[in-house]
Amino acid sequence: MATKVLMPQLGESVTEGTISKWLVKVGDTVSKYDPLAEVTTDKVNAEVPSTVSGRVTEILIPEGETVDVGTLILYIEEAGTGAEPSEAQPAAQAHAAVAGTEQPVSAVSSPASQTVSVAVSQSQAPVSTQTDVARPKQRYSPAVMQLAQQHNIDLSQVNGSGAEGRITRKDVQAYIASGAPVRQPEQPQPSGSIVAPAQTAVPQMADVTLPAGSKPAAGNRVQAAPGDQVIPVTSVRKTIASRMQQSKHEAPHAWTTVELDVTNLVNFRNQIKDEFKQKEGVNLTYLPFFIKAVVEALKEYPLINSTWAGDSIIVKKNINISIAVATDDALYVPVIKDADQKSIYGIAKSIDDLAARTRAGKLTVDDMTGGTFTVNNTGSFGSVLSAPIINAPQAAILSVEAIVKRPVVIDDMIAIRSMTNLCMSLDHRVLDGLICGRFLQSVKQKIEGIGSETKIY
Questions:
Q1: How many domains, in total, are found in the chain?
Q2: Does residue 428 carry a catalytic annotation?
Q3: 432 labelled catalytic
């Protein structure tokens, strides 16, 4: 019996994954729980395990292809059973014999379903040959079909670079970038046509000549000029772009900031950081102090720790702080679980552990899920003011900016103090300026109140 293996959901809110590498090939024998493929999502890199023992009979998705969660990716014939025909043969090409002729067919596919429209016209149909009948059916993934449909691409004109000549999304993108001609929109079917219902196509944006000084809109093709460097977009970067665009589009962003005098914090940390490093083996940065103040303020203003749910607002019980960790090619957001139950020492250890495992590529799905509020340390690279994009579905994100010495007025006198800014972006569907202002003032008071009596453990 042929067992279907589907693209798993590797974390909450994950809707798609990219097959970065197949670890098996057709004909291989696998045991239950053996890794079948490496999958990349915006949250984590993971392996897809086999759910049964048996022999790989068919691989449906080529490497580099991005597909929705739940998409069929391969078949395994279980040990001790006979092979069965695949139940889901993609309808990339179909042949309808009418009066001994082969009829042209077009297919429209979506991850959930595939429909075929068959145009019956004897006067224009080519005569079927033995070669045509024996020609294997080409398989197109939902992502390839969707991209081809959006740009009105005839996939028969695209050269495939995937396994067994399959066409990948990269092949279609390269075809589009080459400026190759696209097929004309289909004309109304002649009398006598039989047309199965087809999915409505996404409207295509045509190439246009832009006025001088204007910027290209989404959907317009931008051609590289001689000498330009063209950097292929990785699957991780594509997903980051998609998520950021979705967050900015769906959540009405508002932004606010407060200024903090962190002179006492700087002095206190300088006094204890060497002893802390020697005793605990990790660096004591400023970030744990800010996260500790944030989680205490979230207890006072729990609505900040919430999410928009369409017809309701869900206030989260747990306080799980997402932190941004950058690598050379991507940005990951692992989560400090139950941060409100940790001391400054506990938070510092969690930050060090998550950052190390992020850069080593050893994060788990659990490390990347469950965040309820994000604290972003933009000050680490010198930023003094920023407007971060909300880490959906969270309701807000806070950026801690660089600490700089500046002259300030204290009791009508000028003094040199260590100053920083806290910048907060909020989902205005959930939060308003009043509660966010009070929340920031609470964080400010807690940070400015740090001194020799502050407990680290």
A1: 3
A2: yes
A3: yes
